[in-house]
Amino acid sequence: MMAKSHVIIGVATWFAAAPMLNLPPTDSMYLGLAVVGSLLPDVDHPQSWVGRRTRPVSTALAATLGHRGVTHSALALFGLMALLLHMGNRQGAVSALAVGYLSHMAADMLTPRGLRLAWPLRKTWGIPLCRTGSPAETLIVAAVVGSIGWYLWHGGVRPGRMLHWRQGSAWGMVQGVVQEVTRPVPACSPPRQAHRSGPPPRG
Ligand SMILES: [Zn+2]
Question: How big is the CA angle at 54 (ends 49 and 56), to the nearest 5 degrees?
Fold first, then answer.
């Protein structure tokens, strides 16, 4: 799928997943990490949005492991999560990144090529519904966003209530991600912190 489709599906998936994780959906840092996660698997493709910005890493990955190889597998998802948690990153931040990452893999599974989820095994999984960049892709993105919007609406989420959530902005997302990435990591992993839960703050 196209990068913009991955970002839209990643953000929509994050909005649906965040309440289940007791995390604020519009928090800039979490939203930013979900967007990063939704683009990250394509680091193995030099012509992708993220691949063009991460040369020569993307060129090396494409040459050695190929596109839709290890970075689009369960091994990469769980390996990345385990590594980030081991490095002392907060569980909420890792969860947001993982939700975005997972949404990317789910979206790519809707294309004819499918995914090698059990990489290094060669078997591919997928439901071929659309080709990358085709009108069907736009339809699928609209259907995903519509379904998640319907789900949230029936869960009692209204645009007015969302305004009470901690606000996000494009600059805030960048700041939040940079803060998380550059946050000093303690010498040993701290005890798991409880995340903010309960109803969103009012006013
Ligand atoms: Zn991909």
Answer: 125
Looking at per-residue confidence, does 184 or 133 come out higher?
133
Q: What's the gap in Å between 128 CA and the centre of ligand 1?
A: 14
Contact 165, 25 (CB under 8 A): yes
Distance (angstroms) between ligand 1 centre and the Cα of 107 equals: 8
CA distance 67 to 43: 9
Q: What's the rounded Cα separation, in Å, for the pair 124 and 113?
A: 8
119-142 pLDDT, tens digit per residue, is 999 999 999 999 999 999 999 999
pLDDT (0 to 100) of residue 17? 95
Q: How far is the CA of 58 from the centre of ligand 1 (A)?
A: 12
190: CA distance to ligand 1 center in Å?
Answer: 34
The CA-based dihedral angle spanning residues 79, 83, 86, 91, taken in that order and rounded to the nearest 10 degrees: -80
- By the 10 Å C-beta count (0-12 exposed, 13-18 middle, 19+ buried), 159 is classed as exposed
Cα 96 to middle of ligand 1, angstroms: 18
